[in-house]
Amino acid sequence: xxxxxxxxxxxxxxxxxxxxxxxxxxxxxxxxxxxxxxxxxxxxxxxxxxxxxxxxxxxxxxxxxxxxxxxxxxxxxxxx
Length: 80
What we know:
By secondary structure, the chain is mainly alpha-helical. About 35% of the residues lie in helices and about 0% in strands.
């Protein structure tokens, strides 16, 4: 079953649709942990072997070169 959850990650300008995988390889662990925490807050039940290969098995990555902010005010950050 595929989940209906999406996460947008903004990356530095030096990465684009041709070399974004370099960024992912450096940062997949943090993304994996954030997504695992959204699914289940107990790290003991997260996948133990969180490799880049496992990341690609669990997540589908879509690349976009644009973000449109349709908000009318400043960006607010929620503290959890």
